[in-house]
């Protein structure tokens, strides 16, 4: 899931003269939850994408364990929502904002579970790859290049046009599909976030009253260990790099979370009826290493 720092440089030079376009209406493709290898995207390598975009959608799509991780993450979101009183039948009538959608690996599951999914990411390269996936042509899925922050609720409420790059139309703009959402979900995103205050202000503010926020994250073990960090450190050492002490900038690194830590975060930002727990494990980024616990939390915006 993509790094949450503003990456709108892709279209900065076009903003002054660009006319917003409406998203094309596509057929509601019936597909298995598969991830298709794109013929080509505009990402040409780590650190060499549009506007200094450090993410490469093609490389991300080829990561081992991606499909398994997406399935486990989607199941954790469904479990969290059920714990908050929303079962599978209820979610079929709800709108979802997917924060940090990346190449759409989890979106493919969400599209079958919600009435509408709007996917956002800060990486144009990831969204260009997203646009090559079967899920992108479903009638109930839209996507935009957007860095969630404290100004996001106002931007959506005002209906301001947003970039929505595709392989065929990399400079496309669209209008937001709606002002507020029933559910917002961030899968393996919070550990990338520089400014938690701005992020949670956006995530909570863009919900309707009574809406749910769900977060899944790398978790600690029951005895407090951080297998994700241990795997990153081992990988860095094997590659002859400095130990992986940061995720998205020097001096910044969010360690794995415990359910108690996620609960405290949710309550800090005004969510109520907060529940959290551990559910399943994710494949490690290092072959042969132990799997990584997945933690989840769900909270409700006050009525």
Automatic annotation (TrEMBL):
Keywords: Transferase. InterPro entries: SAM-dependent_MTases_sf. Residues 222-238 have a biased composition (Basic and acidic residues). The keyword Hydrolase does not apply. Residues 221-247 are annotated as: Disordered. Gene3D superfamilies: Vaccinia Virus protein VP39 (3.40.50.150). This is Methyltransferase type 11 domain-containing protein. It comes from Vanrija albida. The lineage of its organism: Eukaryota, Fungi, Dikarya, Basidiomycota, Agaricomycotina.
């Amino acid at each position: 899931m993509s790094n949450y720092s503003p990456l709108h440089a892709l279209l900065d030079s076009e903003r002054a003269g660009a006319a917003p376009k409406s998203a094309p209406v596509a057929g509601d493709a019936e597909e298995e939850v598969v991830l298709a290898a794109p013929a080509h995207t505009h990402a040409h390598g780590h650190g060499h994408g549009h506007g200094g975009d450090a993410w490469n959608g093609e490389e991300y799509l080829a990561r081992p364990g991606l499909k398994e991780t997406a399935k486990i993450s989607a199941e954790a979101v469904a479990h969290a929502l059920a714990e908050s009183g929303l079962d599978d039948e209820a979610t079929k009538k709800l709108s979802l904002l997917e924060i940090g959608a990346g190449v759409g690996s989890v979106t493919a599951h969400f599209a079958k579970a919600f009435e509408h999914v709007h996917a956002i990411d800060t990486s144009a390269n990831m969204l260009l790859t997203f646009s090559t996936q079967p899920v992108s042509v479903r009638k109930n899925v839209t996507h935009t290049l957007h860095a969630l922050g404290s100004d996001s609720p106002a931007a959506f409420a005002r209906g301001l046009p947003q970039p929505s790059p595709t392989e065929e139309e990399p400079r496309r703009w669209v209008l937001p599909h709606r002002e507020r959402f029933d559910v917002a979900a961030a899968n393996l995103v919070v550990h990338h976030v520089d400014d938690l205050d701005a992020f949670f202000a956006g995530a909570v503010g863009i919900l309707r009253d009574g809406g749910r926020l769900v977060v899944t994250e790398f978790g600690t073990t029951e005895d407090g260990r951080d297998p994700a960090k241990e795997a990153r450190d081992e990988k860095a050492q094997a590659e002859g790099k400095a130990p992986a002490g940061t995720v998205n900038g020097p001096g910044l690194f969010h360690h794995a979370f415990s359910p108690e830590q996620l609960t405290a975060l949710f309550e800090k930002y005004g969510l109520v009826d907060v529940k959290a727990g551990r559910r399943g494990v994710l494949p490690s980024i290092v072959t042969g290493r132990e799997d990584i616990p997945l933690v989840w939390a769900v909270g409700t915006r006050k009525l």
